[in-house]
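Is this the right way to post structure tokens for a design question? Let me know if I should format differently. Anyway, here goes:
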């Protein structure tokens, strides 16, 4: 892996500033002087910046027609008087402002999430201790600090730019969490409520205490728990457990050691090393003609451990189940017989390394953890608007320019700063050919297939800018044919558009033959790397989502549409044409094409290959079940990617200190994932809510329009989805360990859904059914069984798996402590049982919580949970001791 860093130079700023000065000219007051380097440095070091939320339900939303709107202000306060102009502040904001108001400052959107603040003609300088304020209205809601990007950059023409210190986030020493001193969000319900019908105010600490607290659970039962839950298990309580303190003595039959070595490595890391004096472990691959891939039998009853598997994958999973059975405090394995097989063939995780880069070491660690919980697909998102992360032989510009960001707004040497990426230590880089080979080989050893994704034709700014640099470089050298060979944008295109992420230049031009030459080159090189690693590229994900309204004024597209032989008659048909053509290109290489459902929906089925994988990312309240049915009736494989369940970059809980986008779900914790019923999407309407906590209706019955045409039909008889995957998009994740925080422990609940089909789940009705919060297909008995199995699962996580995370150095999320005042005593609990809880009174010393704490008038109480090894605390929360526990 090579990580490239670029200094922020005055030359770069001098080059970029004229391009944005035109957007908001500055007229200097007679009392102002042009800022110099010394003054810029001093302001950057001392200027206090606060992004302050005023309301998520303002009386007016000027300039916006969005359902949600927030009102905020940015305050700039200098401790000294500075009568200077000629400066700008570049900063990232997820959604552009629809309206702004300020006496002395202007705020403009530039591109993507990049905005700039500059003096206007009323600016009279910074006065010591006096705030310059910009009011802004944004067509969204702001409910946690995750969306507030760091690293505001103070710039001026001809000067070296500098990051404003008060806008830099930092890592808190004891918790390891990111702290944003510039973020000023309150937890008051009046601020956190985003809509008149918002129901999430009722999710108070006291309400969650009632939901999470479980009494009289037989904790001893976790000794025989396996995560994810096996298909069937017999427990032999009267048979003595096996003690692995002396290690394990391994014997393999019908399987090569290399095929299961990674599982033995994990056992050794947990303390069960290989030894001739250890408990005998016999692993046999039977090679039966029948049986599902990955199936196995594990038997620990007769003084030894016996695993019989259908294939090497099953043998590997049998050993992982042995590791899950192991209790670290005793190094014992109970006497059980397990008969197990996977629920779904596809059990995946999507990892976005384009927006913020993840190190090679992180990817390798993640693959190891994925395989421990029997996930078998890594959907590797390697390119997007904000970065290109894989070396492509013959196209060095992709990594030379587009693997890193700096303050070059002209994209000549790097990509524009986005996502608060002023100084990119650890946030940019790419995987060299050697790195990618290592990742592929490591994945193969862990029985994980890598599915690369380089998003096209939208989300392609990194590719567009790299190929533009190639074009201009070769053109200057007089190599005009070579310059045009891989060009993916039309230099004469005057189309004005904004993508869903607010870019005006992020879409491949699908009317140019050179675009398809580029796509062919990239896919061929990636496929070559897979072949070299002995892991053939069986499936490739083209993205094909969120294509903006590009191409309307492109001469190349006007000419293309005019040519009747192209079978494209309207500009709106171009996205579908691109996907169809690229899909056939991929299929011709013997590779299955995959894409997001929205782009695939624009294609004509007869123009597509027979085998297609549709990743459905519509939310449940937005009729995900209808999308699944429509694509199932095309005969396509379906991978569930429903954001309100599977997006692990959403907040864990309703807490302004939590990180994560929340457009699809306000809270996604282990329990919300565990309760999901993937085989019957519409039935989830009985208990799932929309983004403001409202119930919704999922009508899965046959529906026709006024002309008698089917607009919806239930799934074809007997159809089942191919699988499910979790997703970690990385816009707001700036550190590797914080990526682990967002993934774990809730990835275990996703693995549970992918591997194990619970008996309480409501079977799908192929005749069609209508579901809402008043129907009762999930009966009281089924709910009781679900709740019991949830307790089994989460106790296994709390009492066994987190200890293993501690031992292996996984930076998982320690849950917040919830509490309730009962009879003037504060009772405390956590979602995950078994964790130590501490409290302190009025900033005193931390004490272990063992019994409810007496509430004393005028004194506050803070609560926090600890990791099982007590080495790391979670976030401390101030308890509401008023007795009402309202947020």
């Amino acid at each position: 892996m090579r990580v490239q860093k670029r200094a922020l130079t005055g030359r770069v700023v001098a080059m970029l500033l004229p391009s944005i000065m035109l957007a908001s000219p500055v007229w200097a007051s007679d009392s102002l002087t042009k800022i110099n380097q010394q003054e810029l440095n001093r302001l950057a070091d001392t200027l206090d910046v606060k992004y302050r939320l005023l309301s998520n339900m303002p009386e007016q939303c000027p300039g916006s027609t969005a359902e949600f709107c927030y009102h905020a202000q940015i305050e700039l306060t200098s401790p000294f008087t500075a009568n200077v102009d000629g400066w700008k502040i570049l900063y990232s904001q997820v959604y552009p402002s629809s309206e702004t108001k300020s006496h002395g400052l202007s705020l403009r959107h530039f591109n993507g999430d990049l905005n700039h603040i500059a003096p206007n003609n009323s600016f009279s300088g910074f006065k010591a201790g006096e705030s310059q304020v910009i009011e802004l209205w944004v067509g969204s809601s702001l409910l946690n600090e995750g969306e507030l990007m760091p690293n505001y950059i103070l710039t001026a023409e001809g000067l070296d730019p500098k990051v404003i210190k008060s806008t830099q986030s930092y890592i808190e020493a004891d918790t390891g969490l990111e702290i944003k001193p510039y973020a000023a969000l309150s937890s008051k319900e009046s601020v956190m409520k985003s809509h008149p019908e918002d129901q999430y105010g009722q999710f108070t600490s006291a309400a969650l205490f009632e939901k999470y607290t479980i009494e009289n659970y037989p904790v001893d039962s976790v000794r025989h728990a396996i995560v994810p839950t096996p298909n069937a298990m017999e427990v032999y309580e009267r048979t003595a457990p096996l003690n692995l303190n002396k290690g394990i003595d391994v014997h393999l039959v019908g399987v090569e050691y290399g095929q299961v070595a990674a599982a033995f490595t994990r056992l050794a890391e947990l303390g069960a090393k290989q030894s001739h004096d250890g408990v005998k472990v016999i692993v046999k691959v039977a090679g039966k003609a029948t049986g599902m891939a990955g199936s196995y039998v594990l038997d620990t009853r007769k003084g030894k451990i016996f695993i019989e598997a259908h294939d090497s994958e099953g043998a590997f999973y049998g050993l992982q189940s042995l590791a899950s059975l192991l209790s670290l405090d005793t190094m014992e394995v109970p006497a059980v017989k397990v008969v197990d097989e996977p629920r779904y063939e596809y059990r995946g995780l999507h990892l976005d390394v384009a927006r913020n880069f993840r190190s090679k070491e992180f990817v390798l660690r993640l693959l190891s953890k994925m395989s421990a919980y029997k996930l078998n697909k890594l959907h590797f998102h390697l390119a997007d608007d904000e970065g290109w992360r894989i070396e492509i032989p013959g196209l060095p510009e992709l990594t030379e320019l587009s693997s890193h960001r700096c303050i070059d707004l002209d994209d000549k040497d790097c990509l524009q700063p986005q996502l608060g990426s002023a100084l990119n230590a650890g946030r940019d880089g790419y995987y060299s050919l050697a790195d990618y080979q290592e990742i592929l080989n490591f994945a193969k050893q862990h029985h994980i297939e890598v599915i690369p994704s380089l998003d096209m034709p939208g989300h392609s700014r990194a590719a567009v800018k790299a190929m533009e640099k190639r074009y201009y470089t070769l053109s200057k050298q007089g190599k005009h044919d070579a310059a045009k060979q891989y060009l993916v944008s039309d230099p004469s295109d005057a189309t004005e558009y904004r993508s869903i992420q607010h870019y005006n230049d992020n879409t491949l031009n699908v009317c140019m033959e050179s675009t398809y030459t580029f796509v062919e080159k990239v896919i061929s090189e990636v496929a070559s790397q897979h072949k070299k690693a002995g892991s053939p590229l069986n499936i490739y994900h083209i993205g094909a989502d969120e294509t903006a309204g590009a191409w309307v004024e492109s001469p190349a597209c006007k000419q293309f549409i005019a040519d009747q032989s192209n079978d494209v008659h309207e500009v709106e048909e171009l996205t579908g044409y691109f996907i169809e053509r690229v899909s056939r290109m991929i299929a011709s290489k013997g590779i299955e094409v995959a894409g997001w459902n929205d782009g695939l929906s624009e294609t004509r089925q007869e123009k597509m290959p027979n085998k297609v994988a549709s990743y459905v990312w519509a939310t449940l309240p937005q009729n995900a079940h209808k999308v699944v049915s429509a694509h199932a009736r095309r005969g396509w494989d379906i991978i569930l990617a429903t954001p309100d369940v599977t997006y692990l970059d959403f907040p864990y809980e309703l807490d302004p200190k939590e990180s994560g986008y929340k457009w699809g779900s306000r809270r996604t914790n282990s329990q919300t994932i565990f309760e999901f019923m993937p085989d019957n999407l519409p039935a989830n309407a009985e208990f799932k809510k929309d983004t403001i906590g409202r119930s919704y209706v999922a009508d899965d019955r046959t529906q026709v329009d006024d002309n008698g045409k089917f607009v919806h039909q239930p799934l074809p008889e007997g159809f089942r989805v191919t699988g499910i995957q979790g997703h970690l998009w990385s816009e707001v994740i700036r550190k590797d360990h914080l990526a682990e925080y967002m993934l774990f422990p809730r990835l275990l609940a996703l693995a549970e859904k992918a591997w194990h089909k619970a008996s309480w789940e409501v079977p799908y009705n192929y005749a069609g059914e209508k579901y809402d919060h008043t129907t009762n297909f999930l009966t009281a008995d089924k709910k009781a069984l679900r709740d019991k199995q949830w307790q089994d699962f989460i106790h296994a996580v709390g009492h066994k798996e987190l200890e293993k995370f501690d031992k292996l150095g996984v930076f998982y999320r320690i849950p917040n402590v919830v509490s309730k005042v009962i009879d003037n005593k504060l009772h405390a609990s956590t979602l995950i049982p078994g964790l130590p809880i501490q409290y302190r009174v009025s900033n005193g010393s931390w004490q272990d919580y063992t019994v409810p704490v007496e509430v004393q008038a005028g004194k506050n109480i803070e609560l926090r949970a600890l990791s099982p090894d007590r080495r790391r605390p979670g976030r401390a929360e101030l308890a509401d001791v008023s007795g009402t526990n309202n947020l």
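Format looks fine. Someone answered above. Worth noting: The first strand starts at residue 33 and ends at 34. The chain has four domains: 10-192, 232-340, 346-464+516-780, 817-878.
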